[in-house]
TrEMBL record:
<keyword id="KW-0210">Decarboxylase</keyword>
<comment type="similarity">
    <text>Belongs to the OMP decarboxylase family. Type 2 subfamily.</text>
</comment>
<keyword id="KW-0456">Lyase</keyword>
<keyword id="KW-0665">Pyrimidine biosynthesis</keyword>
<dbReference type="InterPro" id="IPR013785">
    <property type="entry name" value="Aldolase_TIM"/>
</dbReference>
<feature type="active site" description="Proton donor">
    <location>
        <position position="95"/>
    </location>
</feature>
<dbReference type="InterPro" id="IPR011060">
    <property type="entry name" value="RibuloseP-bd_barrel"/>
</dbReference>
<dbReference type="Pfam" id="PF00215">
    <property type="entry name" value="OMPdecase"/>
</dbReference>
<dbReference type="GO" id="GO:0004590">
    <property type="term" value="F:orotidine-5'-phosphate decarboxylase activity"/>
</dbReference>
<dbReference type="InterPro" id="IPR018089">
    <property type="entry name" value="OMPdecase_AS"/>
</dbReference>
<feature type="domain" description="Orotidine 5'-phosphate decarboxylase">
    <location>
        <begin position="17"/>
        <end position="264"/>
    </location>
</feature>
<comment type="pathway">
    <text>Pyrimidine metabolism; UMP biosynthesis via de novo pathway; UMP from orotate: step 2/2.</text>
</comment>
<dbReference type="InterPro" id="IPR001754">
    <property type="entry name" value="OMPdeCOase_dom"/>
</dbReference>
<dbReference type="InterPro" id="IPR011995">
    <property type="entry name" value="OMPdecase_type-2"/>
</dbReference>
<protein>
    <recommendedName>
        <fullName>Orotidine 5'-phosphate decarboxylase</fullName>
        <ecNumber>4.1.1.23</ecNumber>
    </recommendedName>
</protein>
Amino acid sequence: MNFLEQLRQAESLNQSMLCVGLDPEPTRFPTGITRDAEGIFDFCVAIVEATADLAMAFKPQIAYFAAHRAEPQLERLMRRMREIAPKVPIILDAKRGDIGSTAEQYAKEAFERYEADAVTLSPFMGFDSVAPYLQYKNKGAFLLCRTSNPGGDDLQNQRLASVDGQPLLYEHVARLAAGPWNLNGQLGLVVGATYPQEIERVRELAATLPLLIPGVGAQGGDAAATVKAGWRGDAAGATTGPVIVNSSRAILYASSGTDFRDAARAAAQATRAALHAARMI
Ligand SMILES: O=c1ccn([C@@H]2O[C@H](COP(=O)(O)O)[C@@H](O)[C@H]2O)c(=O)[nH]1
């Protein structure tokens, strides 16, 4: 089964467009979880167990593991997630981007060491920096397109005078990902929930690509506006790309007490319901 099929399966199984982000920050851990690498593992397992039937995907952010020397714990977590939620794909948020020979190593890290189903990439070093990931035919790769942070404007909203029609940079990335770069149908795009108009524009340019949309919850993006802008499907809507809406901190840190599992589950349920309800609007 390829990554797109995995996404469709999880969306239908869990009736969900929610991606639960795993950004474990030890200083924010609830009572009873140790603030070290083993605590990172325990905390993430607890969150995955609490949300396994609510998620369309999980998205561990590699920096939160690497910063705390918890790469072995991330490897173990990836295996444990397969046991807890075998049908929920895992997107490794690594935002890699480098020359081809180095990208080959990063691809190996993501897909062989961590066994992720998909990875996030920066496209700004060009196609040869993306190509090594496409050698892994069943895996997916999400290119940063219009990111959720305010600084995304600095480059992504600049016009490219040298390209036909003078598109904005993020529009050009969307066209490349939907067209000549998408050799085997493995690409998706990252678009911030904080910019619904741009989500709409990206959906126009890349109708069938999966969109990974971070920015609801802690960053204040609106769930309903996000779905309205990016989701075009219905039950027969397999021709339009899936929408995968990420929330990390709002779920992970819904409570700092011993009830954190229940609180995370409740927050995930509320976000999943808000996303689902927005399909009807
Ligand atoms: O444009 C982007 C791309 C990636 N992210 C990542 O998503 C999560 C968001 O976390 P929240 O706690 O839900 O704000 C985090 O891992 C970012 O690195 C993003 O926010 N924006």
